[in-house]
Design a protein that fits this description.
The chain has helices at 3-27, 33-38, 44-187; strands at residues 205-213, 216-219, 232-237, 242-254, 257-262, 276-278. By secondary structure, it is of the alpha+beta class. Among the domains are: 3-88; 205-278, Beta Barrel (Thrombin, subunit H).
Length: 285
């Protein structure tokens, strides 16, 4: 029940009270109804006037209350309109936010797909990079191996070139020594094809270049000097001129070197490096 209904209920209740009072007064027939009606202040006329005034007052209050109610309704309606506008604005904002959210979600999905694609491409690239690194490592190892082989071959080539130069130089020296040997053979009237084992050596001199063992001596004269296997030489010590003993050639493999064996029965001392060697068979005391 609203306020207007309550007012009407109150007015009806009040009228019921008034009319009840009138009924009670009419019921009292033994009274002077005129006096009851017109008696000042307590008469029914005065009470009726008071009731009318009260009714008017109540009607005025009702009117005021209705005015206030209408004003309140108007304010409420305006608030409702404002709230409705706010609702529409909020709904529009919500819809706009949902639209933006959908757009952002779409972008997020696209970005996620793009990131997934990038990761896949990165995985492929990483695999390719690993394969390339492995290929590079294999290539570097092969290059290092080839470089090592090249260095080895270069060293071999340089050694071969040096050996060739040495052999060419040695060939020239051998040719020159061969000429000298032929001249020496011609001077001594010897044949290059003859066997001179046991014959006296040519009158040449040299020195002991090494004596690694008591039974082996190496001297500084060789095939170019006409030395042959079986030739014998006298060994003396240059510092004292002392006779040391006799040696016999056992190997002539080089143009300027020969290997000899000491004659132990003729040795007066141990043969040393630097001892003098000459092809004079007369002993020096």
């Amino acid at each position: 029940m609203n306020l207007v209904g309550k007012i009407f209920t109150f007015v009806i209740f009040l009228m019921c009270v008034v009319f009840g009072a009138f009924a009670l007064m009419v019921h009292a027939a033994h009274k002077n109804w005129r006096e009851v009606v017109v008696a000042p202040k307590v008469g029914l006329n005065d009470k009726l006037e008071d009731a009318k005034k009260l009714e008017q007052k109540l009607l005025d209050e009702k009117k005021n209350l209705e005015t206030a109610l209408n004003d309140e309704k108007a304010r409420t309606q305006r608030r409702l309109i404002a709230l409705e506008e706010q609702k529409k604005s909020a709904v529009a904002e919500r819809d706009e936010n949902e639209r933006k959210l959908q757009i952002e979600e779409g972008k997020s999905r696209e970005l996620a797909l793009a990131i997934s694609g990038v990761h896949q491409r990165l995985a492929v690239l990483q695999t390719t990079i690993d394969r390339m690194r492995n290929d590079i490592k294999v290539t570097v190892d092969e290059r290092n191996g080839l470089q090592t082989k090249l260095v080895g071959k270069t060293d071999e080539l340089m050694n071969a070139v040096a050996e060739r130069e040495r052999l060419v130089k040695l060939g020239k020296e051998l040719a020159a020594q061969s000429i000298k040997l032929k001249e020496a053979l011609s001077f001594y009237k010897l044949s290059a094809d003859g066997d001179y084992k046991g014959k006296d050596p040519p009158p040449v001199e040299g020195e002991v270049t090494s004596a690694p063992r008591p039974d082996v001596v190496e001297i500084s004269i060789g095939a170019d000097d006409g030395i042959r296997k079986g030739h014998k030489f006298v060994v003396t010590r240059p510092s004292t001129g002392k006779y040391i003993g006799m040696i016999e050639v056992i190997q002539v493999d080089y143009p300027n070197r020969a290997v000899c064996r000491p004659d132990k029965s003729s040795l007066s001392d141990q043969i040393q490096k630097g001892d003098h060697v000459k092809a004079n068979l007369s002993k020096v005391r």
